[in-house]
């Protein structure tokens, strides 16, 4: 009797043990405070590298009317064209607020048109918040976005913009 009793309980005990275990807890992802951003200095270097590798000459100190009496000091003008790239730093966001488009939730690139006499200008707006990364190596190995991935995204966004600009016949 003892032998039969233990065999009949074994599946029940095993089911209880496995049910109480459940799936393994998921590793904790980074908090907002733990995420880092690419600095404006780092971004400028990434932008220059991407444009240099594409053979696109760059001019700096291009001022564009963006409407509402505001002028934007665009980081990089592509050759002599009406196209440029602006890295939106926290200070830029504070200075210009909603005049600069916010990042698209789906990741689509944002282009800011000029206004007034600069209406033909088209500025790629790369917001620093779109390029946040996790500095923790272990979390990056488990799938969190690392610095290299964020930098690669900057380069890819510049390449995509250049494809658009070339399609407009500007370069």
List the helices and strands and how they pair.
Elements lengths: L1 H20 L18 H14 L4 E2 L2 E6 L2 E5 L1 E3 L4 E6 L1 H7 L13 E4 L8 E6 L9 H5 L5 H21 L4
Parallel strand pairs: 5-7
Antiparallel strand pairs: 1-4, 2-3, 4-5, 6-7
Helix pairs in contact: 2-5
Alpha-beta classification = alpha+beta
Radius of gyration: 26 Å
Distance between the termini: 89 Å
Number of helices: 5
Largest sheet: 5 strands, mixed
Described by the principal axes of the CA atoms, the overall outline is globular
Helix share, percent:
25-40%
Poorly predicted segments:
none
Widest sheet, order of strands: 1-4-5-7-6
Give, in order, the helices and strands: HHEEEEEHEEHH
Strand content: 15-25%
Give the tally of β-strands: 7
Mean pLDDT across every amino acid position: 87
Short characterization:
It contains five helices and seven strands. With 171 residues, the protein is of the alpha+beta class. The chain is globular, with a radius of gyration of 26 Å.
Describe the fold and architecture.
- This protein has helices spanning 2-21, 40-53, 90-96, 137-141, 147-167; strands spanning 58-59, 62-67, 70-74, 76-78, 83-88, 110-113, 122-127.
- The chain has 171 residues and is an alpha+beta fold.
- It has a five-stranded mixed beta sheet with strand order 1-4-5-7-6. The protein has a two-stranded antiparallel ribbon with strand order 2-3.
- Helix 2 (40-53) crosses helix 5 (147-167).
- The chain is globular, with a radius of gyration of 26 Å.
- The model has no long low-confidence stretch (mean pLDDT 87).
């Amino acid at each position: 009797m003892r032998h039969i009793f233990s065999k009949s309980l074994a599946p029940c005990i095993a089911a209880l043990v496995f049910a109480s275990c459940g799936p393994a807890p998921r590793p904790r992802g980074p908090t907002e405070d733990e995420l880092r951003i690419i600095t404006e200095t780092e971004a400028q270097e990434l932008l220059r590298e991407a444009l240099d590798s594409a053979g696109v000459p760059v001019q700096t100190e291009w001022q564009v009317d963006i409407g509402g009496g505001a002028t934007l000091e665009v980081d990089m003008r592509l050759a002599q064209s009406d196209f440029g790239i602006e890295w939106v730093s926290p200070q830029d966001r504070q200075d210009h607020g909603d005049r600069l488009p916010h990042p698209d939730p789906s990741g689509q690139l944002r282009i800011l048109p000029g206004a007034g006499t600069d209406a033909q200008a088209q500025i790629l707006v790369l917001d620093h918040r779109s390029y946040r990364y996790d500095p923790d190596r272990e979390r990056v190995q488990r799938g969190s976005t690392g610095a290299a991935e964020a930098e690669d995204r900057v380069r890819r966004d510049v390449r995509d913009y250049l494809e658009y600009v070339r399609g407009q016949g500007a370069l």
